[in-house]
Amino acid sequence: MKYVDEFRDPIKAKALFNEIHALKDKIKRVDNKPLQLMEFCGGHTHTIFRYGIEQMLPDWIELVHGPGCPVCVLPMGRVDDCVTLAERPDVIFTTFGDAMRVPGSKKSLLQAKADGADIRMVYSPLDALELARKNLDRQVIFFALGFETTMPSTALTVLQAESEGIENFSLFCNHITTVPTIKAILDSPDMQIDGFLAPGHVSMVVGEKPFEFVAETYDKPIVVTGFEPLDILQSIWMVLKQLAENRCEVENQYARIVAATGNPPGLDAISKVFELREFFEWRGLGSIDHSGVKMREHFSGFDAERKFSVPNIKIADPKSCQCGEVLKGVIRPWECKVFGSSCTPEIPMGALMVSTEGACAAYYNFGNLPELLAKRKQKKLNNDTEESAA
Amino acid sequence: MSTAQVKRKLRSDIITLAHGSGGKAMRDLIEDVFVGGFNNTHLSQLEDQARFDLNSLTAQGDRLAMTTDSYVVDPLFFPGGDIGKLAITGTVNDLAVGGAKPLYLTCGMIIEEGFPVEDLRRIVTSMKATADAAGVSIVTGDTKVVHRGAADKLFINTAGIGVIPQGVNITASRAQVDDVIIINGYVGDHGAAIVDARGEMELENTIETDCQSLNGLIETMLEVCPDIHCMRDATRGGIATVLNEFAESSNVSITLNEAALPVRAEVRGMCEILGLDPLYLANEGKVIAIVPADSADDLLSAMKQQAAGIDSAIIGTVKAEPSSRVVLNTSFGGERIVDMLVGEQLPRIC
Fold first, then answer.
1. What domain range is B19 assigned to?
2. Is the ipTM reported for this complex over the cut 0.95?
3. Which of B201, B265, B336 sits opposite A49 (nearest CB)?
4. pTM of the prediction?
5. Does B191 map to a domain?
């Protein structure tokens, strides 16, 4: 397939692996520990597993799979709010398909649908707006979810609804922002990450500039990365090259899509419709300042949170979940106490097991489960022996 | 009573509750649409059951095979097929992949009131044509009409009986190390066709279902290699599911070669857009066989001679480790585990 296969060429991959191997001795590593590189975005995580990139990398490089899967990090309380809205008899609740399975404290949207709620999967917020036009006697709510990537399309849909004077359409806004979250990870005391792959499609909207602080304030290299396997490999090589040359910069590997200045009309639509929340709750990471947006006062008629009452109750993550530690690279997904036992993709307990873009679900679906569980057991034995020796 | 005597005529444009009530309207429906449409001597006896001569069955093999499946696909008509065609091929294929020669099918219809008679006739005609092509007869049936909203338009159940010839022993637990995995063509066409037919994606290309009977192809395969170890048709859950079933039942590892896997460009394109994996997309005319390595080449060339197998390919091999797992060697040079599908990729595809 044109414009796809070129980015999956195994011969070019081999050349890149050779370049990566060649950098090994040029990078200083503390105590000979593996270098930790974080891909922030769930789309990257998916590519890494789908093409088996992780196993192809040398053992001195460890990939840490970041929190960039908006479905995964959605807190249970927000899912409960969705269910409450969806179960109103006057409401058609519309959502992207992958949010259907996210567990709430009592049920997921999929279960609410089975219980009789009118929940419809859509591919675009414009589909939801079309439903509103066709069902004037019903309230159509669109579950707005995602990072800056999806914000312009929801913002433009709201502007469209306003210009048409459509009154039975609203958003349940759960958009989240990238930069404060990367900052929260960088600020956490147990953070060990050596470099970042920045999310390509978020960057397509916001541009390169918002990521400069990673290089300037925190002295970590960061490379804006595309989503094909060769994109990922090239970006890993670019981060390593910066480390080898003692540089910390924002570099753009995904220049075929990402302009340095981002997408000004998209940004304009975002700032017209949305403003930053003081804080937003993340599953696995807790509350992060300015990490979400809400609708501006002017659009309150299109804001489901203002238009209808939502319980907005905070539900704590299950105690046994170690999503936070996995997200920061402190432990590997399979090292979590509940991975693959009480937390599986069928009945996810933690954020990262929810969507196929979540790190734990990726390990569960694409990894060798018996081998991983045996590794966890061995690691626990080793730790116990170390502790008793100490 | 012979078919020539069927004179009752259904005069309504739509199906109403009266057509399921056991009275005259129901006789009109059954005799005009079903008995007239399926047209065979078993059915036109109008008994409560079909009756078979045991001797003619035992002459064809030493075991009976029986299967049933219900069809609820939405939409009812899609490029390359419809619910009726699917209801025949699905049950024929479930018999055929066990090595059985499919002979007789039943047909149960659950119809929502208000359903257009014209559509029903179209579906029955399609069932008859598909059954004839596969060499099977629809020998008994049942009709129910339910209130609006109690069923979505039309649901069909078919059950089937076939005979397994002596010496054929196909089960999911017989895959052996070094065996070879063969498929009869492109994967994922049906699942992709259904998404396309729903019109939600507004794709430029029309993708056709692969819905087809496989009994002719499988008969040829068994002639070339009577010792086929495992065989299933890869329907819901796609080839990933079937291969996982084989790997688990046989305690072996199945290695797939992504580069050898036949996937149409338009199906791949749709999967790229929607984030779907062709390995999990439904098929309705694809058989996966695990066969001894020394007969694989002969089998492949025999399959390619048949219309239903023209795009056949060897897509992988059986290994010992990792036991009970399916491993994909990616075209990119890596490898990954291919697990069973969790949840659903798409609703109501068959």
1. 3-164
2. no
3. B336
4. 0.87
5. yes
